[in-house]
Amino acid sequence: MFNLFLAVFPEIFLINATLILLIHGVVFSTSKKYDYPPLASNVGWLGLLSVLITILLLAAGAPPPTIAQFFWNNFFRKDDFTYYCQIFLLLSTAGTILMCFDYFEQERFNAFEFIVSILLATRSMLLMISAYDPIAMYPAIEPQSLCFYVIAASKRNSEFSTEAGLKYLILGAFPSGILLFG
């Protein structure tokens, strides 16, 4: 029998690890005791570790071959295709985080929120891959787009970055409203 807990445990683990990284970043970046340390590299390596652990958890809860499993009233589906797409997504996320280290160093960019936003968007994409119903897909798309708005506007001193984030927010609101209200 296909275990429901193993089907959703990688997503649960990734969201919990992301929230712990967010708490870690907020506590230590505002700490006078530790002299406000730069945390982008530290949170980046911990985020990469959490993505790799999520890949292992996904492999441990792999569905039986050629059997599609539906759960939560047919809102989500797990089969071979969703399994391989999720593995590909997590490997791409690991590569993205690795590329971020060079970017942080070149641009002298020290915002741990960038990695947290990437991990939150990845969690939303994992749920969107498994979604079998439009009602389940919509709540997965919205947090993903919100994270991408934040990533687009993440350079606080750049006027172009702020403009890009605002345009992305406005242009993303129209399709969302059409999808939601019909």
TrEMBL record:
InterPro entries: ND/Mrp_TM. It is found in: Membrane. It holds the Pfam family Proton_antipo_M. Signal peptide: none annotated. Residues 131-182 form the NADH:quinone oxidoreductase/Mrp antiporter transmembrane domain. The chain crosses the membrane at residues 12-31, 43-61, 81-104, 111-129. It is a multi-pass membrane protein. Its main location: membrane. It comes from the Eukaryota. GO terms for cellular component: membrane. The keyword Mitochondrion applies. Keywords: Membrane, Mitochondrion, NAD, Translocase, Transmembrane, Transmembrane helix, Transport. This is NADH dehydrogenase subunit 2. It comes from Podocarpus macrophyllus. The gene is nad2.
